[in-house]
Structures are given as structure tokens and as C-alpha cells.
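pinned: reference chain
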Amino acid sequence: HAGLIHFMAFPATTKGEGPVLETIDPLSLADGTWLVEIGPDGSCEVTPTTAEPQVRMPIAALGSILLGGVPASTLTGAGLITAEPDLVGRLDLAFAPEASPRLSLWY
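pinned: its C-alpha cells
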């Protein structure tokens, strides 16, 4: 199951009520507000929405939590993610890696 988003962090997504995330991209390539729906099998569907975001983050922060190197709570503490307080722990759970990322090359 490596790389899957953990469904139990957001069980309401089965009803189409997943978290709404806003990404901020300085290059404007990935700016937007997105409804994130997570299936029981860990699959994820992301669709644009006009709903009010519950979570705001720069695209670099999203990359960090997707790769599993830095939890959302750490990025929230650093002021890089703004989220409704009850969502921060759920984001940590949703994006928790099964193993920490590592670089397998030596320079």
C-alpha cells in the first residue's frame, strides 16, 4: 500500500464530503481549490471546486506531505500550511508514509 492516502483519516469522503484544499503556486501551474475524495482502497480523486478551502498550502508543502518527508503538523507549525485545527492531525494520518523517504544514491 505504499504511496496510498489513508482513507480512515477522512471517512466522509465516501459521501463526496472530502477535505477542500487550496494550493498556491508561484508559477500559477497548480493554483486552485480542490475537493479531495479518498476511496477505501486508498485511491484518490481530486476535482476543482468553488467551495471555501479548509486547508491552504503552497505547492511545495503539498509535495513534502505527499512524499512523506515532513508531516502536515510540522509544516503547519512552521506557518506553511493553514488549516482548520481538527484537520491537521487528519492530514498527518492521511499522508503518513509506510516508510520514510530516502535517497539511495551517494555523491
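why pinned: The longest strand covers residues 32-38. The chain has a mean pLDDT of 80.
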